[in-house]
């Protein structure tokens, strides 16, 4: 069980797509920094992210900093830094995509 | 007098390009006619409700909202960039002119100097 | 648990040093141990003590330095990455006959082996890339 | 002994990540079992016929070609990354195992530490 | 008449696509640095680049450095730094995409 | 023609300073004039005189410095970008009570207005981004 972090916007960069190709169903993806744009509803990549096999979470402070609380896809839950740390503990390892 | 077009293409906070584009706009506006274009992830620079305090970074989006006071009157945002991202004009901190790709090509053509960030 | 972090982004330019710092602070809040924070690639600029941010912004290298000093955490800067980018400690500065050094307190230059070691010793290694 | 997987995802010369990944592989191979995966634009790191002298940058691709001498025996390249880029095994400077996305997921699972560049 | 330069690989980054959306038929696109990967034949983006309206050129030293002379799309011509400089003179301005 | 260049990438990490240098050299070959080379964003690290590259690699800051010295070209580093990233000249170093400076010869710290001025005065402004 892997925690993947992605810190690039899918609208600018292919990193999220690459992570999704490599991640397993039982893994978790955490969108951080500019990665949080992957959690937008109604955008070009929203359907892809919403239907992805692994669980997808988003880092709340990075989402809030960018003013996106009102645009968050309804299928994606948020975590704060405390939750981020807990995820790194409950998963076997962390793989960073950047 | 040469006119400048400044383009911001990056999202805020992940990199500092947005802040540096803003600084360039403010500086240029003191000397030359300036147009500003929000393109690609640059449209996120003017998303409403930003609050970078929660990641302990300085929030510069309020300055974008008052650019008219600095004589930056020509502020444009790409319609296709907004649309790809599920955003509309109402999501933005300032009144901008939403323009087509053809209009963007025209802006690139008609301004003497183009600076991109 | 024992954690180590790797930071690859230049400060003020990429968010990665900010994210790493927030994460590191939360690790200590939750009672975890930080074995090492390793700076590689443009992340080595986090150790430059000559940074002078505007008054309303955080001094990133001082923030790391205080954090490490107060919590007894090792901040290791990859020496090969640092030399080519011009981040020097006193001893490298002398060896290469430069007249000054620019490394912030509590940062240490050392080899890339320290990153591998961090991966071996720690329960989790978390990378903040750029 | 913990095993390491090192992933290189960036193309050569545009950024220094490829060189830094190589350095990490060489260092890790002295201490732990290491696997190396060329993924995404990382596959360009081992494209044949590189010659960075013409842009006055040091060409490190020959070192990738001799990694076996450093006890780095498990060298993989993503089949889908090659295919998207119109490349085949024959275009590469070294013998690698071309693997599927499922196999990549398995590599991520079975190595204790994953370092990405 | 604009000379656009693009320095990012289309396989990693959306910059080339963005440039193509904004460029006019009479413009020229010069692929430099990692942008030269856009000039590959047989790749996912090859058809798009080969059928693009503006003229597309590639910087030879960057192509050669990356070992891609044998993979260059047949519809794309190369220029060296001398040619790059000449292009900046013969076009009205340079717009950099990065 | 009169040219100016803008360089945004950190040396050794991004190719942009190499590309800008190759381009600048060819400009002079063809008899053009370079009015100014402006360093912004992480490009300001090009001016760090403490860089010590491996012996088989080029010293990028020295290369700029020699090029500028031999050809009488202005290398201007954005002062705001430079201060926050810790690239200081003697006068900024004193003003902020640092004990040393780290700017390479032939580079000058100045305001962002110098980039705008370069755009106004030059026939072509070419940006090398990162």
Strand content of chain C: 15-25%
Helical run tally of chain C: 5
Structural class of chain C: alpha/beta
Query: Percent range for helical residues of chain C?
Result: 25-40%
Total tally of structural domains of chain C: 1
Helical content class of chain A: 25-40%
Could you write a compact summary of the structure shown?
Chain B has 117 residues and is α/β, with parallel strands linked by helices.
Keywords, separated by commas or semicolons:
heterohexamer, A: 98 residues, alpha/beta, Hypothetical Protein Ychn, Chain: A, 22% strand, globular, B: 117 residues, 5-stranded parallel beta sheet, 4 helices, 5 strands, 29% helix
SSE blueprint and pairings:
The complex is a heterohexamer, with two copies of chain A (98 residues), two copies of chain B (117 residues) and two copies of chain C (130 residues).
Chain A: E1 2-6, H1 15-22, E2 28-31, H2 46-50, E3 55-59, H3 60-65, E4 77-79, H4 81-90, E5 93-97
Parallel strand pairs in A: 1-2, 1-5, 2-3, 3-4
Chain B: E1 4-8, H1 17-29, E2 34-38, H2 61-65, E3 74-78, H3 79-84, E4 97-99, H4 101-110, E5 113-116
Parallel strand pairs in B: 1-2, 1-5, 2-3, 3-4
Chain C: E1 2-7, H1 16-29, E2 33-39, H2 60-71, E3 75-78, H3 79-85, H4 90-95, E4 107-110, H5 113-121, E5 124-128
């Amino acid at each position: 069980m892997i925690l993947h972090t992605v810190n690039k916007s899918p609208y600018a960069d292919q990193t999220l797509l690459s992570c999704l190709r490599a991640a397993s169903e039982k893994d978790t993806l955490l969108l951080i920094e500019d990665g949080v744009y992957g959690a937008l509803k109604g955008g070009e990549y929203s359907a892809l992210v919403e239907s992805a096999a692994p669980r997808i979470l988003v880092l709340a402070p990075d989402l809030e900093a960018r003013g996106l609380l009102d645009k968050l896809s309804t299928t994606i839950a948020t975590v704060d830094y405390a939750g981020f740390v807990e995820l790194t503990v409950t998963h076997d390892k962390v793989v960073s995509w950047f | 007098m040469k006119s400048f077009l400044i383009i911001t293409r990056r999202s805020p906070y992940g990199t500092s390009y947005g802040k540096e584009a803003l600084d360039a706009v403010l500086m240029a506006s003191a000397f030359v006619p300036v147009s500003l274009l929000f393109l690609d992830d640059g449209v996120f620079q003017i998303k409403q409700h930003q609050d970078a305090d929660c990641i302990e970074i300085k929030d510069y989006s309020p300055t974008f909202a008052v650019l008219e006071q600095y004589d930056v009157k020509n502020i444009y945002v790409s319609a296709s960039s907004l649309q790809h991202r599920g955003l509309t004009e109402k999501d933005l901190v300032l009144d901008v002119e939403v323009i087509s790709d053809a209009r963007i090509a025209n802006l690139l053509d008609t301004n003497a100097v183009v600076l991109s960030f | 648990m024992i954690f180590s972090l790797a930071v690859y982004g230049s400060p003020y330019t990429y968010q990665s040093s900010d994210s790493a710092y927030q994460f590191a602070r939360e690790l200590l809040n939750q009672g975890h141990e930080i074995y090492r924070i390793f700076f590689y690639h443009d992340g080595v600029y986090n150790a430059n003590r000559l940074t002078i941010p505007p008054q309303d912004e955080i001094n990133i290298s001082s923030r790391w330095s205080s954090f490490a000093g107060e919590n007894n955490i090792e901040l290791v800067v990859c020496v090969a990455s640092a030399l080519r980018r011009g981040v020097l400690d006193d001893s490298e500065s002398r060896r290469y006959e430069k007249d000054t050094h620019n490394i912030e307190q509590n940062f240490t230059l050392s080899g890339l082996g320290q990153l591998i070691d961090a991966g071996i010793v720690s329960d989790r290694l978390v990378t903040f890339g750029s």
